[in-house]
Every structure is written in structure tokens, then in C-alpha cells.
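Quick log. Single chain, no ligands specified.
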Amino acid sequence: MNKIIIGISGASGAIYGVELLKALKAENIETHLVISKTGQITIAHETAYSVAEVQKLADHFYSAHDLAALMSSGSFKTIGMIIAPCSMRTLAEIASGNTTTLLTRAADVCLKERRRLVLLARETPLTLSHIRNMETVTLMGGIIAPPVPAFYSKPASLQDMVNHTVGRVMDLFNIEHAALKRWAGCEKAID
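-> predicted structure:
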């Protein structure tokens, strides 16, 4: 069962979802994509990709309004779901269980079926409501993985930072990513 759901919400950082789709395709993982309405706007504004080009990166694409899609049912087996990026509104819907689109319904299904759900929560600074929603989703079994760069990999470009985050997220599903530079220890002695 090498199927995974990728969601792209309207938070800044749509490139994370795009790069995840590309990396998962390289590993022969079947992807099922859903993009929120504001996610489509963010893709157009922040990336060099059109929404149609992003849709073609996935094996299957579903409208966020299609609440009868495969991923809206627990009987549709996947290894889980990644929402990259995850807006605070999307996080709030998942935390409350009050899902209004296929994006949040699919996340809710992953939680109820005890499948892995990873949210690249993208906002700063955080309000207490954001933090409590993150806590709630964590207690429900989800994983909050903000896209925070790791400087030990000595990134030379924005693409290096994106690749690192994508690789770390793929690690959560035990999927290798060739571009991930792992911690290799510290060569200098520290007193």
C-alpha cells in the first residue's frame, strides 16, 4: 500500500507541497492531491507553477468540494496524509472535527483510522488558539511539523532548505529522500 494523500492549503509555503509531490513520485509513491481554494491562489502567487501543473504532479487530483471522493472514506487505505503547508484555519477545522472541505475531511479520516497525519503548520507568531489547536491535533495522534530550516546542513539556497524539510517529512513515513543532508556529528571539540 504505497498511497499517500497530499493537501495544500492557503498558508505561505505552497512549494513544500509541490516538492513533496515530486519527491514522492521519484520514490514510486502513489499520490492523491487536494488543494484548497486559497491554496490555489498561493500556488499561483508564490511559485513558478500553475495549478494545472501541480495537479499533474499527482497521480490523482480531487476538488476540495468533492466530499464524496475516495479519501473521504476510511475504507480508502493509505499510509497517511501530509498537509504542506497547513494554514491555521485548516488546523482549526481538524482540531475541532468540524470539517467543511475534502482537505480537512481527509485529515479527519486519517485521524479516526489511526493513520499518520503530518501538518506543516505555517504561521508566526502563534496565538494561544493556534498552540491549543496544535496540542489538540497532537493528542489526537497527528504530528505538527513546522517547516523550520536546519542550518547544520549548511543550505546554500532556498531549494536546499525546502529539500531538507521535505526529506524530514518523508522520514516520518519511512520514505527515503536522496536530497536530505543528515546530521553527521560535530567535527570540532566543544569544551
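The mean pLDDT is 95.
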